[in-house]
Amino acid sequence: MQRLKNISERVLNSLNPHKKSAGFMKTRIPKIKNKCEFCRKTGTHFSVDIEHDQIVPDEFHNFKKVLSLQIGYCNFPDEIICCPYCGTYYYKKRRIDNEINNCSDEIEFEEITEDRVKELIIFQKNNK
Asked: Is the same domain home to 20 and 72?
């Protein structure tokens, strides 16, 4: 019975990581980075429609490329980029669809965690 109680407590704690545990378990509260002004404005997802004459903000050109991934048969590799000011990571991907009467050319930037970046780096090294 005690074992079942401990398991259920772990499950409940994993659903609410900010609640302190009543028992011996400790929950880890994630560190929150201070983002620079640009990354705060950008948010967790940002996209640019090239076919509608939108342009990528100049700030993204200053980001450091951490990793380049060739996914499928795309002309442009996906990239992991890092803000030089606050260290926020973004997954950058460009997708072009040349479908007749419905073409698109879009670049997306999606914020990802440092832990996910580490996983992707390990994955890339293991698959070379």
From this structure: no
Question: Please, which residues have CB within 8 angstroms of residue 109's CB and are 6 or more apart in sequence?
Answer: 42, 45, 46, 47, 60, 81, 90, 91, 92
Residue type, 1: M
Rg (CA), the chain: 20
pTM score over 0.85 = no
Confidence label for 12 from pLDDT (cuts 50, 70 and 90)? very low
* Structure tokens that stand for 100 in this block: 């007749």
Q: What is the pLDDT of residues 32-89, one digit of tens each?
A: 568 999 999 999 999 999 888 889 999 999 999 999 988 766 678 899 999 999 999 9
Q: Which among 59, 44, 32 is positioned nearest to 91, based on CA atoms?
A: 44
- Cα(66)–Cα(118) distance, integer angstroms: 10
Q: Are residues 59 and 101 in the same domain?
A: yes
Whether residues 38 and 92 share a domain: the answer is yes
Name which residue leads in pLDDT, 127 or 62: 62
Question: What is the residue range of 11's domain?
Answer: 1-29
Amino acid at 125: K
